[in-house]
Write a structure and sequence with these properties.
By secondary structure, this protein is of the alpha+beta class. The protein has four helices and four strands. Strand 3 and strand 4 form a beta hairpin. The radius of gyration is 15 Å and the shape is elongated. The two termini are about 30 Å apart.
Length: about 110
């Protein structure tokens, strides 16, 4: 999602959009949104605001596949944990900005 976010924000900047809306599965929305905010902050465009919307929610206790289809487990047990681990890994590799930077971005967007 990092490359897709970067290309999306390049398009938004080229087209001079001021607002972008992303839609993702509830399990992916935090990571997807963090990648988009990272791309915006790295582009130095402080006038582009991103908004996130989740797709249709699904029961947390049902079996689901995550990790590109490689992980099977309930959404709350295995898949959500995998999302958290990916976020941690991307942050440690400096592929995404910190939670604090995402919160500051929100504050600037909404004030």
């Amino acid at each position: 999602s990092g490359i897709e976010a970067q290309l999306f924000i390049e398009l938004a900047n080229r087209e001079q959009w001021r607002n972008v809306h992303i839609v993702a599965h509830p399990l992916h929305i935090l990571r997807t949104y963090t990648h988009v905010v990272t791309a915006i902050l790295h582009s130095n465009n402080r006038k582009l605001w991103a908004y996130a919307k989740t797709g249709v929610p699904q029961p947390w206790h049902e079996q689901s596949r995550g990790g590109q289809g490689n992980t099977l487990g309930t959404r709350i047990e295995g898949v959500l944990q995998g999302e958290y681990e990916r976020l941690q890994k991307y942050f440690e590799q400096e592929d995404i900005v910190s939670c604090e930077e995402v919160f500051e971005y929100h504050y600037q967007r909404d004030n």
